[in-house]
Amino acid sequence: MANKSLKAGTRSAVLDAVHDTARGLQDHGFIDQRRMHQYDALCLEPVPEYSSAQIRALRDMLKISQAVLAGVLNTSVSTVRSWEQGDKRPSGPSLKLLNLIDRKGLEAVL
Fold first, then answer.
1. 34: which residues sit within 8 A by CB, 6+ positions away?
2. Are 60 and 106 a contacting pair, CB within 8 Å?
3. pTM, full prediction
C-alpha cells in the first residue's frame, strides 16, 4: 500500500536505489544470478494504462491509420477501433508495445 502514496518520480528513485544495491551485492557475490533476475523483475516500472483518447492521440501524432497500428501491434483493426471507442482496453503485450511506441517512437518496434 505504501507504493500508492509515493509519487512516480520518488518511486522510480526508490526502485533505482534498490536495484543498484542489489546489483552491488551481486557484483560482490552476495546475490546469485537467479536472485538478481528476481530483483530485475521486481524493479521494473509498471506499464501505464492508456485511455481511448490517449491511444487516438498517439496514433494521430504518429500519423498512422488504425490498420497500420494494428499491424505493428499484431492485432486486428477492430481491436484498435474498440480501444479508441473505449469499448476495450489494451492489455498484456499490446499495452507494453503501446508504451514502448509512446516512449521511444514507432521505430523501436519496427
1. none
2. no
3. 0.67
Lowest mean pLDDT among 5-14, 17-26, 30-39, 40-49: 5-14
Q: In terms of Cα–Cα distance, which of 51, 49, 84, 50 is closest to 70?
A: 84
CA dist 43 and 65 (Å) reads 35
* Residue 97, CA distances (Å) to 66, 73, 87, 100 in order: 15, 7, 19, 5
Q: What is the dihedral of CA 16, 21, 27, 33, to 10 degrees?
A: -70
The position carrying cell 538478481 is 36
Helix (H) or strand (E) holding 58: helix 52-62
Element (H, E) at 102: helix 92-104
Judged against a pLDDT cut of 50, whether residue 3 lies above it is answered with: no
**pLDDT at 11 exceeding the cut of 60:** no
- Model confidence pLDDT, tens digit, residues 37-64: 888 888 877 889 999 999 999 999 999 9
